[in-house]
Amino acid sequence: MASSSLLTAFEPYVDIRFNAWFTIILILTYGCALRKPGLLLLVVQGVSATILLFNTTANLGEMAKTMALLPLGLGSVLTFLVLNRSLQTRYLSAFTTYVNIAVYTNIGMMVGTPTGGTFRGMCSKVTCIAIFVWIVKQGRRVGWKTVLVHKNLFVFTAVSKSWIFAHASYRFILLTLPCFGSGRRHRLLELYSLALTFALSSASNLPFEYFFGMADTLVVPAIAGWSSIATAFKIVPRDTVNDDLLLSRIGSDGDIFLGTVSLAIAAFVIIKIATTP
């Protein structure tokens, strides 16, 4: 009875059924990434083709974003990781450049996210710029040599643990903006990303911060692909929660609170930039 009430309370904010299925998908993805990256690459290619053929509800922008994340993003990374060691060594510099461009572009471009007339939206732009400058500074400090290959995984070495948690907090607030709709399917994105970062780190006995890049490369395309498949084949009902209702739940006080938190994150980041060599 208590669990049923708890689920009912969370339902306006989180798509419980969608996320329950996604948790299973992510566990399988984690296992394949560690042991069978070639199999995961085939799955990514198959899912991408399926989405192209059967997801008739997506507009051009949504389809382009999904393809950029799945075959071009995750697929490209997996293709490199299944190469033999000599080829990986030969092309590591090119792969590092590719990863750097993807990481810095994906973070920096979020400054263009529409504010929706909200205070938190305007504050998020400030925070985005600060977070972008901080990670670029960390990359520059290591001479842009940010990537190493460890077994079947790549590690991104030019990011600190503090940056990871600041970015997660910032992105959680960002995803509450009106342009992301109700956001019920993606509300737990940061939890998944941090959990997978920890799991990869534990399995590899390497520092937690090394696996932010690999974890996000798995989580973000996986949730985008699952959302497209779930919608195309009606596995999970479309999100019918009224966006205006959700926005009214945040309200003006919530908007100011989230905006203030975002500015606090920006202040923390700026201090780190100023005090860290």
Automatic annotation (TrEMBL):
Keywords carried by this UniProt record: Membrane, Transmembrane, Transmembrane helix
Top-level taxon: Eukaryota
Protein known as: Uncharacterized protein
Organism classification: Eukaryota, Fungi, Dikarya, Ascomycota, Pezizomycotina
Presence of the UniProt keyword Transmembrane in the record: yes
TM segment ranges: 16-33, 40-60, 66-84, 91-111, 191-212, 256-275
